[in-house]
Specification:
Blueprint lengths: L1 E3 L5 H9 L13 H10 L5 E5 L2 E10 L4 E8 L12
Antiparallel strand pairs: 1-2, 2-3, 3-4
Length: 87
């Protein structure tokens, strides 16, 4: 199931981010408070994907009124399509 992200998804998503190699996080912007503010500014552009009540992916994106940006995209390796990438 894919749906709009809310702050209730934050804790599970943060664990996914921390366990994803090369995921660049910033302490202020990616804190719960920072993400909550981001979601308020961009309420319809951030999505989470769940399967069997387990978070398997997410995308955070926003806009400045003129341009759109993708900030974070993460999908658990076992849910990525295509061939497996080397570790």
């Amino acid at each position: 199931m894919i749906r709009i992200m809310t702050t209730n998804d934050y804790e599970e998503l943060f664990v996914m981010w921390k366990n994803t190699p090369n995921m660049g996080l910033r302490s202020l912007d990616d804190s719960k408070e920072g993400i909550s503010s981001f979601l308020k500014r961009n309420p319809y552009t951030n999505f989470v994907a769940y399967e069997d009540d387990k978070l398997v992916g997410a995308i955070l994106s926003g806009h400045d009124g003129r341009r759109g940006y993708i900030y974070h995209t993460v999908v658990l390796p076992e849910y990525r399509g295509g061939e497996s990438l080397p570790a």
